[in-house]
Design a protein that fits this description.
By secondary structure, this protein is of the alpha+beta class. The protein folds into 2 domains: about 55 residues, 434 Repressor (Amino-terminal Domain), CATH 1.10.260; about 180 residues, Beta-Lactamase, CATH 3.30.450.180. The strands form 2 sheets. Strands 4-5-6-2-3-7 form a 6-stranded antiparallel beta sheet. It has a two-stranded antiparallel ribbon with strand order 1-8.
């Protein structure tokens, strides 16, 4: 954020483009020393008003503000045991009849169930695969996305929002560790600490069979589950993308790809 955007008067030459630490503290109504302790993690019990003031000064959106507040919330220690994660029967039946590419992903973007039209869009959209690993580590998956840089930024921000502050989860540790070792792009994006709600957005795909198409991706929370999301792709009616999706559907008879319960932490 530039100083002018926060109402800070600029005089002389500045070595930093954004707000200085003491300027953030002043605008938030706290001391510079206290803000430094917050930055360094030496004060682990900031009050809610302090966090809200810092979020206001930094102009964080709702998702980033919630994430900031969650970081300071006390977390009870508990033993983490893998659990069997299964997709509700009604959602599995919906995948069979929806007539659009659709799949269910878990909290850590593991694909739990998918129909064959979703798998026709990408072979990685099938149970047992993880979308984060596919997008960052599979060259064929990367080739599907003409806007790979922008799409991966959104993906990582949504992943951080989905995981929240539960960073001691073994599945989380495994995924982030593997991605950090193998992908420079992921390391850079993860270090930004961007947080974004997982909302629907247009997605461009360069499909090897039907060519380029633009699809809208909608994400719907699955009730009664621990963070499962139903993801559905659809095209604007009357567009070339809609025609290409119809061609793809004709080559991929609609049915559900086998969905077995999987162990998650």
């Amino acid at each position: 954020m530039r100083p002018e955007e926060a109402g800070v008067r600029v005089t002389g030459v500045r070595r930093v483009a954004g707000l200085r630490r003491e300027e953030v503290a002043m605008l938030a109504g706290i001391s510079g020393d206290y803000y430094l302790r917050l930055e360094q993690g030496r004060d682990r019990n900031p009050s809610l008003p302090v966090l809200e003031s810092v979020a206001r000064v930094l102009q964080l959106d709702e998702a980033a503000t919630d994430y900031l507040i969650g970081l300071a919330a006390p977390k009870p220690r508990r033993a983490r045991r893998p659990r069997r994660e299964s997709v509700p029967t009604g959602i599995r039946q919906l995948l069979d009849v929806i007539g659009l590419p659709a799949f269910v992903e878990g909290r850590y973007f593991d694909v739990l169930a998918a129909n064959t039209l979703a798998t026709a869009l990408s072979p990685n959209v099938q149970p047992g695969r993880n979308r984060m690993l596919a997008v960052f580590l599979d060259p064929q998956e990367r080739a599907l996305y003409p806007d790979w840089d922008a799409d991966t930024a959104v993906l990582v921000a949504g992943f951080r929002e989905s995981v929240g502050t539960d960073t001691d989860d073994p599945r989380f540790v495994q995924l982030v560790g593997e991605l950090s070792l193998a992908s420079e792009q992921f390391r850079q994006l993860w270090a930004r600490h961007d947080v974004q709600h997982r909302v629907g957005r247009p997605t461009r795909l360069d499909h090897p069979q039907v060519g380029e198409l633009t699809l809208r991706r909608e994400k719907l929370a699955v009730g009664g589950t621990a963070g499962q999301t139903l993801v559905v792709y659809h095209a604007e009616p009357g567009t070339s993308s809609a025609e290409k999706l119809t061609l793809l559907a004709a080559a991929a008879p609609l049915k559900r790809v086998s969905a077995e319960p999987m162990n998650t932490a």
